[in-house]
Specification:
Blueprint (H helix, E strand, L loop, with lengths): L1 H26 L10 E3 L5 E3 L5 E3 L5 E5 L2 E3 L3 H16 L2 H9 L5 H44 L10 E6 L2 E2 L3 E4 L4 E3 L1 H12 L3 E6 L5 H6 L5 E2 L7 H4 L2 E3 L4 E10 L18 E4 L3 H10 L4 E4 L2 H9 L5 E5 H11 L1
Parallel strand pairs: 6-10, 6-11, 14-15, 14-16
Antiparallel strand pairs: 1-2, 3-13, 4-13, 5-11, 5-12, 7-8, 8-9, 13-16
Length: 330
């Protein structure tokens, strides 16, 4: 009898253990392959493991043009820079440089490129005809060159050198790369070609953005080139070249932010807006939302880091660097 009871008790314990293990398995079932766990964020959106840390608002905050700043008294240098820019624009070099860093797949641009190619083919024949006329003009050009040689030449801070001030935290216009901290980007390449046309060697000084205009104004630097927008306030201190590109200011927010459009940004004290000090983004933001709601940072990366850590609700900055910052954090 005792032996039978022992068998019954053993079977009962085994059955109970199976039930417990079955229940535990149901609670601990992992996600099936190809699925991700999700949670709901404070604004009611689903937050998955693949959700971006940062995102750009679809609507541009502002549109503007970039130019090179030069000291007011150095009009001869400004004229020389404008002449170089005109040549680089006419032969398509500026567009080529910008295209290396900023890609666009729009159909309009593709059609424009095809139209340009066809036009260039037609122009080739016309250029052959014009070649003879250009030879005739050679004598006149030599005379003009002699007259220009008599005109006052531009000066630079250091003979034979063009010193450019920039803030290399603004990709793709200027940024640092490599162990030797080489400054690369649209502005760096364009400046090198301008210096070449002026018969000078380019030297780039990497400084704080809001010190560039003051440095150019006092003659510490020959020119400033840092994705710089022409404004009435800046024109009081320096002159600007003809614009060499257009740009837009954009807004960066966290991936799970309740801000989905420009209209969601308010200046009632409930939000803090990060900007890079001295930039037009900072100027526009202070005008629109009040200085008390703006937090200035030394550069774009610092502002973006503040956004990631929750110190600000959004960051206003140029669109191309904004795209680079968003991509860099995943």
């Amino acid at each position: 009898m005792k032996k039978i009871l022992s068998i019954v008790l053993a079977l009962s314990l085994a059955l109970s253990l199976c039930v417990v293990l079955s229940a535990c398995g149901e609670k601990a079932t992992p996600d099936e392959p190809g699925t991700t766990s999700a949670s709901v964020t404070a604004n009611g959106t689903e937050d998955t493991a693949d959700a971006p840390k940062l995102r750009l608002l679809d609507t541009a905050y502002a549109e503007e043009e970039y130019a090179i700043c030069v000291a007011k008294e150095n009009t001869a240098l400004l004229d020389a820079i404008n002449a170089a820019l005109a040549e680089l624009d006419a032969d398509g070099t500026i567009d080529e440089i910008i295209g290396k860093y900023i890609s666009s797949d729009s159909e309009e641009e593709t059609e424009a490129a095809e139209t340009t190619e066809a036009a260039e083919t037609t122009e080739a024949a016309e250029e052959a005809t014009e070649a003879a006329e250009e030879e005739t003009k050679a004598a006149d050009e030599e005379t003009e060159a002699a007259e220009e040689a008599e005109a006052p030449a531009f000066t630079t801070k250091e003979e034979g050198v063009l010193i450019m001030a920039t803030n290399a935290t603004f990709p793709p216009y200027e940024y640092v790369e490599g162990e030797d901290a080489t400054i690369l980007g649209i502005d760096a390449e364009l400046a090198a070609l301008i210096a070449e046309k002026l018969g000078l060697t380019l030297r780039i000084e990497n400084v704080e953005f809001d010190s560039i205009i003051g440095g150019v104004q006092t003659g510490k630097y020959d020119m400033g080139m840092a994705g710089m927008t022409v404004t009435e306030e800046r024109l009081q201190n320096v002159n600007f070249s003809t614009p060499y590109t257009t740009a837009v200011q954009s807004v960066i927010v966290k991936g799970d932010s309740a801000i989905t459009s420009i209209d969601d940004i308010v200046g009632d004290g409930s939000m803090k807006i990060g900007v890079q000090q001295g930039t037009t983004g900072a100027i526009y933001a202070e005008d629109d939302y009040g200085a008390e709601n703006i937090i200035n940072y030394k550069n774009g990366p610092d502002a973006v880091q503040a956004l990631l850590s929750g110190k600000v609700d959004c960051v206003i900055i140029d669109n191309e660097p904004a795209k680079a910052y968003v991509a860099s954090v995943g």
